[in-house]
Design a protein that fits this description.
Helices cover 64% and strands 6% of the residues. It has 378 residues and is mainly alpha-helical. The protein has a two-stranded antiparallel ribbon.
């Protein structure tokens, strides 16, 4: 298991503590000292009993108020429960007790980042790097903060540095590959995902990310192969089914795409993008009402989903869902699949230049209503 904040397991945060081994034997409270409470807390943390861990760390801190490491790991438990302000307080206390504690700065940066305070996170990561120049995780985290703040060259520089420090980190290649993909360097992203796979052959996310990048370069069969491999490694991976469905749709295998999107929905019922994609396939297969139902479900799950409003409106136009003024429309909707920000798909529609003219006496009112809603959602 990778500890995503510092790269360390909680007990490793206690390297400066007199006792660092976890004791799994229950001890009577009367015999507890600070280290015993910490050991009991670590056991509970490993069992994902975060509140129990917090309680025991608090007992340790009461007995030993200058126990910086106990504050750090209690902060980890609070972070795991979503209590980022509480985690920040613990990390800050650890820093006050031990100003050269690089991990405390990195952990506090992660909590700041989770709260959306990117400048504070950047400052903490930088301080951690100054204290510990070979801290690969701090470079990766600072790269994330720089990327979100718009400093993409700085972010890539940090990712490169992290990989130089820790060249066997599959996760570092995944992160840099994702940044390259968002910057449009799909081949560079593929290279990084491939390196991650070589380092960690069972890394399902690396296969799926590479699949999305291959789709962007038009290698749909390669994308299908990658997503299929990801599914074999991780059968409950909804995003892999979405990616394979996208590639199958692009190759004209609408039934295969429909099956994949349906599987993604079964695995992740609140996946708005999966409903939208399945709606597109259903419309391509002529099931307009089924498409409308899927877009409606996507909108219910994600009320600000502008694309779903727009395309649902276009399908209603095709169905002749109308009230009010009528006019003649001579066009056909063409759906195209392209990678979206979330690594799934976006849908667009356009008029075909080559089609058999067909006149439909319909109203645009329903479509314009959807456009109006979408304009507020954007």
């Amino acid at each position: 298991m990778v500890w995503g904040i510092t790269g360390k397991r909680p007990e490793e945060e206690l390297k400066d503590s007199p006792t660092s081994e976890t004791n799994t034997t229950p001890i009577q409270p009367s015999s507890f000292d600070a280290d015993t409470y910490v050991n009991q807390a670590l056991t509970q943390y490993e069992l994902n009993n975060y509140q129990g861990a917090i309680n025991n760390f608090s007992q340790a801190i009461q007995l030993k108020p200058d126990y910086a490491e106990a504050y750090i790991v209690r902060g980890l438990a609070r972070y795991a429960l979503g209590d980022n302000p509480g985690a920040i307080n613990d990390y800050t206390q650890a820093i006050q007790l031990k100003p050269d504690y690089a991990e405390a700065y990195t952990n506090r940066g992660v909590a700041h980042y989770a709260l959306g305070y990117k400048p504070g996170a950047l400052k903490d990561y930088t301080q951690a790097i100054q204290l510990k120049p070979d801290y690969a995780e701090a470079y990766t985290n600072r790269g994330n903060a720089r990327y979100e703040l718009g400093d993409k060259p700085g972010a890539l520089k940090d990712y490169n540095h992290a990989i130089q420090l820790k060249p066997d980190s599959a996760e570092a290649y995944i992160i840099r590959g994702s940044a390259l993909a968002e910057l449009g360097d799909m081949q560079g992203a593929i290279n990084d995902y491939t390196q991650a796979i070589q380092l960690k052959p069972d890394y399902a996310e690396a296969y799926t990310n590479r699949g999305f990048a291959r789709s962007e370069l038009g290698d749909m069969q390669g994308a299908i192969n990658d997503h299929t491999q990801a599914i074999q490694l991780k059968p409950d991976y909804a995003e892999a089914y979405i990616g394979r469905g996208n590639a199958r749709a692009a190759l004209g295998d609408m039934q295969g795409a429909l099956n994949d999107y349906t599987q993604a929905i079964q695995l992740k019922p609140d996946y708005a993008r999966a409903y939208a994609n399945r709606g597109a396939v259903r419309s391509a297969l002529g099931d307009m009402q089924g498409a409308i139902n899927d877009y409606t479900q996507a909108i219910q799950l994600k009320p600000d989903y502008a694309e779903a409003y727009i395309i649902r409106g276009s399908v209603r136009v095709a169905l002749g869902d109308m009230q009010g003024r009528s006019q003649i429309i001579n066009k056909r909707l063409i759906y195209t699949w392209s990678k979206g920000k979330e690594g799934t798909t976006r849908l667009s529609w356009s008029c075909s230049k080559n089609f058999s003219p067909r006149s439909l006496q319909i109203s645009l009112n329903g479509f314009l209503d959807e456009i109006a809603i979408a304009s507020h959602a954007i």
